[in-house]
Records
---
Amino acid sequence: MAPILTPEVPRGDNRNLALPFGPRQAQSLRPMPDESDESGSKATSQRVLLVTGLLGAGKTTALKLLEDLGWEVIDNFPVRLLDRLIDSPAPVANGDRAPLAIGFDSRTRGFNPRETIELVKRLGGRGDIELATLFLDCGSAELERRYNETRRRHPLAQDMPVASGIRAERELLEPLRRWADMVIDTSAFSANELGQVMRQRFAAADGQALTVTVSSFGFARGMPPVADLVFDMRFLDNPHWQPKLKPLTGQDQPVGDHIRADPAFGEAFARIRDLVLFLLPRYQAQGKAYVNIAFGCTGGRHRSVFFAEELTAALRQSGFSPTLLHRNLGARAADLLEEAQSR
């Protein structure tokens, strides 16, 4: 597996460290300076990350992931204007300036690695910013494969083989690679794996919030248009056929008591609850921002409503903050639909 070079490596001596990719290894990467628990002026300083590297190594993927994590992202920005950009007003979230990621590469106007290093040295002395540089590297053979696969020309090899352009760019960027605080070799990474590494490395300490929606619906009125997990509750005994329970809903205690009395309810609820609690952290680790969980029964007023209410309570006890929606709870024709579906 391709190495990931971390900030522990001194500048000018960033030798490859063989770290196989995986969630546990990714979590071991050191946080950027202002992610520490130290108090002081650094807590309000502007986080700035310079993202560069070889063309085709994954800069666009990395910047898109940072944007998903709440960073302000600017690509192909002339680095010589960086000090002006930092001094300009920035978006503010929760009282803090949003972290800023600047992408540039050998195509950027006025690109000069050595001048960039001198600028970074000068800006690094300011007390109001926390500046770091990320260099995305990739093996020459893999880069050549990617160019051949996409049928794109290398900007430095318009009339030459791709390998010549890669070699020229690598030589041009070598001073910047040696200087970089972090080097990630993407040779063996898919876009998804690079996203996981970036997420583990640059997500906020409290993690990216996962928006969970739990809903109930009636199959008689159609499936929900958006749902990641759908559970059919029609295997449970239907309160609709109990005259005293028919006008009530799954939010009423008598209906809940009736459903709980079904021998299948306890085990079914426990298994579904455990499955959802197992899946949610894994969805979050994959960068999924929204998860929609839907429970259906015939009319959408009794079994699905009760199950959705119970799962929502269980998720809140486990630290999530789900939104609860009942699509068909107030539908006037629900009784007619329930009876028609049961004939």
Note: Residues 265-285 form the longest helix (21 residues).
---
Amino acid sequence: MPIFVAWQLNSNLHLKDQKKMILLQIPSVQQPQMLNIVKSLQTEVYRIFQDNDAGHSFMRLDMHDDLKGIHIKKMSYFDPFIKHFIAETLDAGSIAEIALNPSDLVECLYIFDTVERIGTVFTDSTDLLNHYMDKASDCSLFCELKAEVENEPFSILELDLSSSDLIHSFSNEVTLLGPTDVEEITNAMNSIFRGMNLRWVEAALRSGDRCFASMSGGEITGLGWGSIEDDTGHLISLGVKQRYRKAGIGTDILYARLLWMKELGVRKVFSEVSDYNLASRDIALKAGFIETGKIYLYHIK
């Protein structure tokens, strides 16, 4: 299988201009030697491509990429948030890779958190899901496609916010936190979500995500995040400290985020909830969410 090495002389070259880059097709037997030569050049190595049998090109992204040059084929329920996920993942120090079809349309986004060892394959191509599952080891992968592998199903729950009255009486104080609260947020996230990539907190805030937290005596007792793209909202990472559970905190944080989003003109909100997380699922269904799809978590040895 040939490998293609591309480099640029100008680090400001946009992704959409990739066809103008110098491409070298190298016989497999010469790849190790040629890659060493490329690394020793005073030229910036910009991209390494490797084609699969279906003609896809896999491109590892970095923070300098101009994402405006990426043309995304409709491939996932999460399409409106694809570029958001890319920027946030890279800012947190993790991996983002796209697969382009022969027409140069993005047919898959693969993101992988190297700390948590969990990733997502956004695609409608079974071949591309299999590609990433085959190369995975000792990690977990989310995908909307169902494979014949043991998995944990998550429901994609959706709420028509434009027609929801959002009548709710709060039992707990809920506060919108920001960049000046990074240390407190990080400590709370670390307490609730053990083993998470703590760099994600600042990356999420920089990308526009907002953190809502319940407070008691100056302590964060629970929190949840929300992000907005156009008129769609995404709810993620709702968690409550063990000793404060069953006090209505999760419901209060849910409604705080919904009220914030409605005020900003969001019309549709969605969240992914494990089918085994009956408490979170019940909170969402009582608020009017309905199931519109599935995404599956595969644990790969």
Note: The first strand starts at residue 3 and ends at 8.
